[in-house]
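Encode chain A's predicted structure.
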Amino acid sequence: MLCDRVTIRPSRPEDQAGILSVERKAFGRKQEARLVDQLIPAPQYTISLIAECDGRIIGHVLLTEIGAPVKALALAPLAVLAEFREMQVGSRLVRTAIETAKTDGYEAIFVLGDVLYYERFGFSGKLADPFSVRWQGRHFMALELQDGSLKGRRGKLEYPEPFLQ
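Encoded structure for chain A:
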C-alpha cells in the first residue's frame, strides 16, 4: 500500500508549493498550476482542499466563485498524483468539495471535464445547457446543490480572468 491514511482538509498558505507541484505533475504541464497560483490568493471566494498521504500532498481540488444567475462555483482543477489515482482520492476530494460548497450556501457547481467521471457525482450537461460560457459543449456540466436551484435559470457565466488566459 502506498499510504497508511489519506486525509482531506482545507489548504493553508504553507501548502502552496506542494499544491503547485501536484498540479504540474498530475497534468504534465504548467497551465493548471498557473491557474491555481493566480486563483487561490485572488479576491474571488475559493474552496481549496488537499489530500494528504502521511503528511505529503497528493491531491488538490479548487472551487472558485463565478458570476452567475445563481450563487455558483467553478470546479477546476482537480489533480491527483498518478500513483494515488486508484485509491479514490479524486472522488473523495470532489465529494468533500461538494459538501463544503453546500454548507457554505452555494446553489450550483459548474465543471468542464470528463463526462463519465463527473456524472457519478450528479453533474449533468443538461443542467448546464441554459448557461452560456465560452467553452460550452458536451463536457460542460452543472450540479445543483439545492433541489431545483437551476430550474428555469439561464444566463451568462462569468469566470475570473485567470480562467480566460
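The first strand starts at residue 6 and ends at 10.
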